């Protein structure tokens, strides 16, 4: 039975200890502090104003989130909220209130096993997690499951936890499944998942074995609760499938949220349930299980079907008889039914996307539960059909087979919201949002901005290849913002200058803060004037072209073409000397927002050349000779200028400023070429010999020359072999940039180098620093990381796109 556990995935024992558990605390160098001292002062003032107003800052650098080094595969589909689980069995991270995370381990949320012999005497009872008794709450439960008898396998969106009870020769395997399935938009939005337990009795004795699922109201933060919680039972018996359980009603910030827990009723077993106080000693549950192996009301008869309180909890127990050398399945589920949401500064009440299929009433939760119990086997078939070609590919490294799927956790657990468009949003029926709604995901767990575009540029490969309609929905929303301005004046923290929140013909940095009015009030980011960022407009053009190469939808290009022209025209003002090449402003005016570029830069210059080429190809497809002629002439000049100014024989210089750091070897210097290769471009836009030479230099210096080649690619390395310490970000390793660089290496035949580079990220994150399922944006050579749970590492899906393209040749 345990053969169901895959050979590949992230595998770890309960008693695992990470060799390098880092912290988010990093003190910049003196010269770096001096560079950003005005920003620091203005940021502290901004933080004080947030606290005075009772608001949370969009990025909290004073109190960053500290990793617990404990997480496993999170539970939940796309856009309906997620509940994180630790690899040791804890329910420990809640993303239920849109865009907000709570890092609490709630003790009442557990699975418990109870084993009775043939004489109905309890011979074993234990909570199936590594938590120990705290002598405060639920201390009548048994909390001492041996950590050396359990191990975990994570292969998103599934996980397998194995528990051994050697003294009884019994094995339990809990398989957790969330329906995150490519190109399946109905099931992927289901807000929850199932737990399928397989219990093996490998002994010569008969046992009655029960598994009890307990779950409490709330999310560990009392300030979010706006009304008392309550429990009520449910039962659905349709189409040959009967399910039963409990609805745990909550209110978070005046939004109703119901946790739906329960199990599948089996003919040869019993399903019982009981409400209990999660802050009590737990006697009602433990005594019942020890006496009966199931849940019964103890003591004075009470109405156990409905209860209210400040905090409440429910338990659902499935009990079955296992004959010698037999096995049985126990099927449970957990879902988050929060159908209506309202952002604090918005006048719109949105419906979650799943309500399109399951409705929005008191029957929604039970309906989702019944549907999931009936269909989870089909989910698994679809998941196998998707994952097995990669898992069975003998040419791919084992670690990659884990990384490519496990990094995908962020699509659901990245604060994602998937909403039906408002009724007054009169969309054309050909607009993908008409059918697929609004989609947003955060830049990171602690960088609270939806669809941060400079980062989504890297991450979007996951959506574009797996859920292309969601990528299209994001693009159409950004398209709609380009030709408008937001007449809201504010001060930008980096320079202290004032400006509009959004300028016409500029691509916004993000689609807003979930603490404000996202999708309407864009550009929550206020550190820089992003209308002057050199990369945002270019990344819109490149994504349009990349999407077309995947979607093959000419109408998509037609719909985007006016805005492509507008943003490209806007970019021309940055070519101050009319040599065809745009220049950077001498400030942090792109995604590396503390790393200053001056004059022509490898990063933005390369993106500009790639965008010019893409615009010409798009115009060719749409037969616009005027645009073809205009940008073809500029492209010729731009390529000549770029190579003349930056190519030094080994790589492209960081920029043309002439400063000492202008010679820095930038890991992401070929970002534009990376995108073109992902689009399948074979034409030599950048000289191939120079690209391969630069990649070889980056591999030698930034990868192998940094921490023994075991941590990916450092952003900047000086030609003398020392890390570029000019800025904070130049000495960081960016996880998502490294995955993108690896894809580019593979596309140019440097397969071994590409996989070795990416392997450094995977091993560091999953096996060394203990940040599985919260991959950070960046880490340093030693001791520290920055920004847990970040969007950019989804760029690993560009590696798979490149591999797929190569296999077709």
Q: Total number of β-strand segments? A: 30
Question: Which architecture of the domain at 2-16 and 66-378 does the CATH hierarchy give at level 2?
Answer: Distorted Sandwich
The best one-word shape is globular
Which sequence of strands runs across the widest sheet? Answer: 1-6-7-8-9-17-13-12-11-15
Largest sheet properties:
10 strands, antiparallel
Report mean pLDDT, rounded to a whole number. 95
Low-pLDDT parts are 300-305
Which structural class do the helices and strands define? alpha+beta
| CATH class bucket of the domain at 2-16 and 66-378 | Mainly Beta
Tell me roughly what share of residues is in helical segments: 25-40%
CATH topology of the domain at 2-16 and 66-378: Beta-galactosidase, Chain A, domain 5
Number of helices: 18
- Our Rg estimate from Cα atoms comes to 27 Å
Structure write-up:
It is a single chain. The protein starts with 9 loop residues before the first strand and ends with a helix. The protein has 18 helices and 30 strands. Among the domains are: 328 residues, Beta-galactosidase, Chain A, domain 5, CATH 2.70.98; 152 residues, no CATH class. The chain has a ten-stranded antiparallel beta sheet. The protein has a five-stranded antiparallel beta sheet with strand order 5-4-10-16-14, with helices on one face. It is globular, with a radius of gyration of 27 Å. The chain is of the alpha+beta class and 809 residues long. About 1% of the residues have low confidence.
């Amino acid at each position: 039975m345990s053969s169901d556990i895959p050979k590949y995935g992230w595998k770890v024992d309960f008693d695992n200890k990470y060799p390098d558990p880092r912290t988010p605390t990093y003190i910049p160098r003196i010269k770096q502090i001096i560079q950003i001292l005005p920003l620091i002062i203005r940021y502290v003032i901004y933080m004080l104003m947030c606290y005075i107003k009772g608001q949370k800052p969009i990025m909290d650098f004073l109190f960053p989130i500290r990793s617990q080094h404990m997480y496993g595969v999170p539970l939940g589909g796309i856009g309906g909220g997620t509940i994180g689980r630790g690899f040791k069995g804890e329910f420990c991270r809640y993303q239920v209130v849109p865009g907000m995370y709570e890092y609490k381990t709630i003790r009442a949320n557990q699975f418990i096993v109870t084993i009775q012999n043939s004489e109905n005497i309890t011979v074993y009872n234990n909570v199936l997690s590594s938590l120990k008794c705290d002598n405060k709450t639920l201390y009548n439960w048994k909390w001492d499951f041996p950590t050396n008898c359990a191990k975990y396998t994570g292969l998103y969106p599934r996980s397998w936890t194995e528990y051994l009870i050697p003294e009884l020769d019994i094995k339990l395997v809990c398989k957790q499944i969330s329906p995150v399935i490519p190109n399946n938009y109905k099931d992927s939005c289901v807000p929850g998942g199932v737990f399928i337990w397989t219990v093996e009795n490998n002994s010569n004795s008969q046992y009655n074995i029960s598994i009890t699922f307990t779950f409490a109201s709330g999310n560990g933060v009392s300030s979010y609760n706006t009304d008392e919680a309550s429990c009520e039972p449910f039962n659905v018996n349709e189409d040959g499938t009967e399910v039963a359980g409990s609805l745990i009603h909550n209110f978070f910030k005046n939004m109703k949220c119901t946790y739906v827990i329960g199990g599948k009723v089996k003919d040869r077993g019993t399903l019982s349930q009981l409400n209990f106080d999660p802050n009590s000693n737990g006697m009602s549950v433990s005594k019942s299980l020890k006496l009966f192996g199931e849940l019964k009301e103890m003591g004075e008869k009470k109405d156990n079907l409905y209860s209210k309180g400040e905090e409440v909890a429910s338990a659902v127990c499935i009990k079955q008889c296992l004959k010698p050398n037999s096995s049985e399945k126990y099927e449970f589920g957990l879902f988050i039914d929060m159908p209506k949401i309202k952002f604090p500064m918005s006048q719109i009440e949105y419906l979650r996307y799943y309500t399109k299929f399951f409705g929005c009433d008191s029957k929604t939760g039970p309906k989702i539960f019944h549907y999931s119990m009936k269909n989870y086997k089909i989910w698994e078939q679809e998941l196998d059909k998707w994952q097995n070609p990669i898992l069975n590919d003998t040419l791919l490294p084992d670690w990659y087979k884990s990384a490519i799927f496990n990094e995908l956790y962020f699509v659901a657990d990245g604060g994602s919201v998937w909403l039906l468009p408002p009724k007054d949003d009169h969309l054309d029926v050909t607009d993908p949002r008409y059918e697929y709604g609004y989609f947003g995901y955060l830049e990171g767990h602690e960088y609270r901005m939806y669809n941060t575009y400079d980062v989504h540029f890297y991450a979007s490969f996951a959506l574009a290849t797996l859920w292309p309609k969601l990528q299209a929905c994001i693009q159409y929303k950004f398209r709609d913002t380009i030709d408008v301005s937001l007449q809201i004046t504010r001060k930008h923290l980096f320079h202290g200058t004032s400006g509009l929140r959004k300028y016409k013909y500029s691509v916004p940095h993000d689609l807003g803060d979930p603490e404000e009015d996202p999708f309407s009030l864009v550009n929550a980011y206020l550190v820089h004037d992003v209308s002057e960022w050199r990369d945002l407009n270019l990344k819109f053009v490149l994504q349009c072209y990349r999407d077309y190469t995947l979607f093959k939808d000419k109408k998509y290009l037609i719909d985007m073409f006016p805005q492509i022209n507008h943003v490209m025209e806007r970019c021309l003002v940055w070519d101050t000397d009319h040599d065809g090449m745009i220049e950077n402003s001498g400030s942090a005016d792109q995604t590396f927002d503390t790393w200053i570029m001056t004059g022509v830069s490898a990063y933005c210059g390369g993106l500009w050349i790639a965008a010019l080429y893409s615009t010409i190809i798009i115009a060719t497809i749409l037969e616009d000779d005027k645009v073809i002629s205009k940008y073809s002439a500029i492209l010729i000049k731009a390529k000549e200028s770029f190579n003349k100014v930056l190519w030094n024989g080994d790589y492209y210089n960081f920029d043309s400023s002439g400063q000492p750091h202008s010679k820095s070897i930038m890991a992401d210097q070929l970002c534009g070429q990376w995108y073109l290769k992902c689009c399948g471009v074979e034409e030599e836009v950048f000289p191939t010999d120079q690209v391969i030479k630069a990649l070889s230099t980056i591999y030698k210096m930034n990868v192998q020359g940094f921490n023994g080649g075991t941590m990916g690619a450092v952003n900047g390395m000086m030609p003398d072999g020392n890390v570029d310490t000019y800025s904070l970000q130049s000495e960081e390793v960016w996880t998502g940039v490294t995955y993108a660089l690896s894809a580019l290496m593979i596309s140019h035949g440097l397969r071994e180098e590409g996989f070795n580079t990416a392997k450094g990220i995977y091993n560091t994150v999953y096996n060394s620093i203990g940040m599985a399922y919260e991959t950070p944006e960046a880490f340093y050579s030693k001791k520290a990381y920055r920004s847990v749970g970040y969007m950019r590492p989804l760029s690993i899906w560009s590696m798979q796109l490149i591999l797929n393209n190569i296999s077709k040749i």
